[in-house]
Specification:
This protein is α+β, with helices and mostly antiparallel strands and 748 residues long. The chain is built from 19 helices and 33 strands.
Amino acid sequence: MPRRHTIFSTTVSAVIALAAGATLAATVVPNEVQQPGTQPGQVGTLETPDKCDNCHGNYNRAVEPAFNWRGSMMANAGRDPIFWATLAIAEQDFDGAGDLCIRCHSTAGWQAGRSTPTDGSGLAAGDADGVECEACHKSTNTDDSEHQGAQSAPFVANDEQNPPTGYYGSGMLSLYPGSAKLGPYSDAEARHQFLPSKFHRRVEYCGSCHDVSNPVVGDLAIGAGKQPTGDPVVQSRTPGSAVSTKAAFNNLPFRYGVVERTWSEFMSGALSRTRVADYASLPVDLKAGAVKAAFDSSGGDYKDGTARFFSCQTCHMRAVTGQGCNKAGVATRTDLPLHDMTGGNAWAADAIRHQNGVGTLRLGGGLTSVQLDALTAGKVRAQQQLQLAATLQVNGNVVRVTNLTGHKLISGYPEGRRMWLNVRWFDASNQLLREDGEYGPITVTIDGASRSVSSLKRLDDPNTKVYEAHYGMTQAWANQLLDLGYPPELVLSFDRVTGVADYRLWELAAQPAGTSHETFHFVLNDTVIKDNRIPPYGFVYEEARKRNALPVPATQYGSPSGTGAYRHYDDVALNPPAGAAYAYVRLMYQSTSWEYVQFLKLANTKSNAFLAAEGDNLLDTWLATGMAEPNVMAAATWGAAPTTTCTTPGSPVSLAATPAKRAITLKWLASNPAPTGGYRVHYDQSGKLVYRASVGPNVLSYKDGGLSSRVSYTYVVTAWTDCNGNGSFDAGADVEGVPSNRVTATAQ
């Protein structure tokens, strides 16, 4: 077989090494970690994205695939400092588990066989490009319904029934073995071999990575790492047994080892079954934010007549107008998928840029100016995406938070991510009475010294509503781990102020049956302790149950059963203090919390020399880049808030574009109310704005030069008011109005 297998002694020796305090990365992937799909070496070396850039980049940053992909988290998955710090703990917890992480975070490295040693030390510099072009454009449906990917027994990623049901999740890709690239168009005039692929418009395509299941606990833990209501799991419960007996080879991936369920959340919701053309049939409260942006960008079905549903691609790869490559004669498409894949992680770009600058990127340093620009653009897109995810509405003493996404609000990797309501109460004299959900400085101990860091100040405040998922270990699994030889003193959690270990494995094992404890040991976690994230629209109980994606407890948001659906909003009771006259309500999001960064530093035993510094490096980066400053997702007011003296300007009127040689001149009419700061020119990406230039408040034109000939560019213009009077635009302090009409022109 193309993949080497382990035997029982390999798993046992890994546990013995853990108990002895030594961590040597596995050179053979344990059977507990292996999964079906195309195996290393089966499809040859995947081409570098640099080669793709020759045609698909360097001509129009607003729409070209290359630049937008390079600013995405997919392009930087192998650089991500969180990935490396988390990998260090995963390798300590189960030697060889790093292969599971590398499989998604460096697809080219994994496919080339460089995931061993499993601590990532075998990866090459180019492997930092994460989920690169060919991993996506060689992907086939694992159910073999269209193109035949490279799969051979026992590594077949479907249930092998007639017809087969594909396995979708955890990077179980089935890659096309030929030289052709696969994509959604049937009329592409590519300069390389090409095959049209229906799979690239299907949501299972994205589910291939965006459901993540842990095969280790799925196979070994008593409860298989599923929710208690989940369906039975076929598992061996025997370390080192043959892969054919393992959970990953005998179950649909969503049945075991819950880590992430973004795709399952989407599949459990009604948007997955709603055509974009049926937008008018949606509830009024959903006709906003991300849902409206998806509709506005596409308008309905694909241009070739294929039905377009509200899908992962419709929201995260919006249709734009432009060319897919830089060759002469290439058609301008009005449904070109924007290859930005933007999510909500606005801090990762700062972390990567910082580590690149100080030389601590574990992989992929020496970023070019184009890559750095792309990261900056990606951060701005992520901030805009967050502002489309939810709305706030205050009615009396209740604030409603409405989920405008197709998955839970929030979704993705749960560790360290949180969303909360921040409410600042004022009296009639404008004095602050109380702040709920207060985020700010707390004094902690780091390496024996006192230090101020930022976090939620009162985690147990009854007036603070935090949306998050917390995972942990069960008492039964803790006892299993002790039987397997895990050290009783394994630290499960640390005090967030002192950094002192406050709970250990033996303590959990000694608890009554049925108990559990929250921990960030994601490779060892076997239960979801809390999940109060807001379900998406039409989130059906039975579908979510079988996919292990229910809220925890499952009685939240309406407590449905069978084919009943949960609410896609949360009504939160406000508790005004005595004398309150008004309040500012904000929905906040943070991608990486102090508590998670602290854990990744303190839990790193430094027993693996290659990964020993990653916890320290992550903390230094977090401290140096604003501590993953929370983003405001939405805002509202309670009571009679004083009117602001900073007026929001109107939209520029009648924007028009005139093409010239390698240039386009824009002209517009003044806004009303007029801006005090000026006008900002943006490239438009179907609602995502890429800043281009600024002009003064009395200037009503702009010439965009240095463009690529015969390439189309789309623009909008916004007006802004200089609220703080410093003469420059400051997001969050100054006020920017609604964009003008959109115009497109082709440079001569």
